[in-house]
Amino acid sequence: MVRGASSVLLKPKTTEEVSAILSYCNQHKLAVCPQGGNTGLVGGSVPVFDEVIISMALMNQVESVDSWSGVVVCQSGCVLEALDQHVAEHGLMVPLDLGAKGSCHIGGNVSTNAGGLRLLRYGSLHGSVLGVEAVLASGEVIDCLSTMKKDNTGYDLKHLFIGSEGTLGIVTKLAINCPPRPTAVNLAFLGLQSFDDVLQTFRDAKSKLGEILSSCEFIDRSSLECVEENLKLKSPIEPHPYYMLIETSGSNGDHDEEKLNTFLEYVMTSGQVTDGTVATEPSRIQHIWSLRERIAESLIADGYTYKYDISIPLPHFYKMVEDMREHLGSSIIRCCGYGHIGDGNLHLNITSKEYEKEILSRIEPTIFEWTARVKGSISAEHGLGFKKRNYIHFSKSDGAIGLMKQMKKIMDPNGILNPYKVLPDN
Amino acid sequence: MSLKVLVGVKRVIDYAVKIRVRPDKLGVVTDGVKHSMNPFDEIAIEEAVRLKEKKIAKEVIAVSCGPAQAQETIRTALAMGADRGIHVEVPAKEMEKLEPLHVSKILAKLVEKEGGDLLIVGKQAIDDDTNATAQMTASLLNWPQATFASEIKKTDGELEVTREIDGGLESIKVKLPAVVSADLRLNEPRYATLPNIMKAKKKKIQKMKPGDLSVDVTPHLEVVEVLDPPVREAGIKVDDVEGLVTKLKEAGRI
Fold this sequence. Notes:
The complex is a heterodimer of chains A (426) and B (254). Chain A has helices spanning 15-27, 80-88, 106-111, 119-122, 125-128, 158-161, 195-209, 221-231, 253-269, 282-293, 295-300, 317-328, 357-363, 366-373, 398-411; strands at 9-10, 32-35, 52-55, 62-66, 71-75, 129-135, 141-144, 170-177, 184-192, 213-220, 242-250, 273-279, 304-311, 334-340, 345-352. With 426 residues, chain A is of the alpha+beta class. Chain A folds into four domains: 9-56, Uridine Diphospho-n-acetylenolpyruvylglucosamine Reductase, domain 2, CATH 3.30.43; 62-177, Uridine Diphospho-n-acetylenolpyruvylglucosamine Reductase, domain 3 (2-Layer Sandwich), CATH 3.30.465.10; 184-295, Alpha-Beta Plaits (2-Layer Sandwich); 303-382, Alpha-Beta Plaits. Chain A is globular. The model of chain A has no long low-confidence stretch (mean pLDDT 95). Chain B has a single domain (3-228), classed as HUPs (Rossmann fold, 3-Layer(aba) Sandwich). In chain B, helix 2 packs across helix 6 (194-200) and helix 4 packs across helix 5.
């Protein structure tokens, strides 16, 4: 975790106010640190020195929902869960869901290109965000707030702001393509004996449930133990070395249940899956999801968490966890792996009683070197923020990093937007 | 002495669902809304299955009154370990008006018919919260009742039950046969696991109508109106104790 402090925090209500703030700061060369829901995991929204904090919390108005096209236009400070509940009234859903939904802002989600639990089904924000309105360092408002699904008129600038973590502009408004809210949701929680079984089951899920599959998550024994010990949550099934959560979303409950039951009978009979349970009731579904969504929270109780968010090819997925566990031995409390196996995104977390530089030096850069060797990404969805910016070269070429720096110089010549973040020092 | 146990399970709107009052203000919207087994009934089934595992019970029969979908609730009970089910068919429209007294009469008749030794039900259903069925059924059967049970122990021919009461806990002994109602802390119900869900598909569910048990389900009560609770108003801040006292006096509270 990182901690910062500053002496000024501003809470604008409109795009015009954001523009005025940035114009002033640019003139006087004052650095700013934009903040959303403060749920980031790489210190991207924490001021390093005395940056002026710009909180988007008051920019939480939903401007319109078009129930024909499914497009919602809103300010960037809308809390994800609140936005989802708002569009639910129109039979729609925000195509993004993550454990932090009760606090995170949609603007922060977009600025970090958050992935979440349903990327498998609804794709990344680069696809679902149709338009962005952002304010540049100079105070100039860039209006790319298109609500059209197809608009090939010039360079698609909105992609610059998606995932650049507030370093190229402050996102003030968004137009998001919301899919219809599924009327039938089923969730299966499965226990498996080997990681090969996990991969095989994932492949079977894609082929047998493909069109209704909405999430495929994976948890190892160590992660579940943490949730059981620290949060006293109960597992629906006996202990297994590996677990999977497979969710289906569709428009016809009977059809989906039949597809799911056929799939479950298949994987149970073949022995890939040795136990499991399935739920359609919201209360049960919520409980089972909490076993996955609250892992990060449960790790905090151990003491200090070293968090890693890696994209690696599926065959190597769990080997990284096993290698790190062996490498760190008894110096740590636990080394656990869980994550969006459907997206090839592993969340590797290591805990110790207190932060120890010794332990950190044994993890980094070993873990990044491991990732680079298999051509993975050292930050699948959390972004670089403050904590990982100097490791960018493990996943991006020098040429690419050079071009990023050039663009930063063009869009923010005085370097006032979220300095010390995303791009490396050198 | 191995007991034959009947367990009453009710299909109710799932507790995680947002309840909406119907436009005609005579009930809540149930169409297309997710239902599940009443949580206290899950606890009742769990207790019955545990009694079977301890060889205190020899058979567990799950009973539900309701429309066709009540069978799903019975299937869940079977997947948790009940041996067979009885579905007393009550069409959806009549289900709205079914009262605890009707259910008690049905359960009493079934218990007699089956020769049950123990009837366990949840202490109350989360939709009507009447908390009356266990008590009335015991009265109709002229059996002892142990309600709000948080622990059940079997001793020779008797049950020692710990009850949750306002002042704390009360321990009573009831002779068998008896009626017990399950309270929250009695146990933590198991999840139905896949192998058991598949086995449950083969277990028998017997169908019957209230008429087959000579029970008349004509309603005695009429729902006049169903309303949302009043919207909570914002509070006001006061600067100090004097301000608080003034405001309380203004509101006529002191």
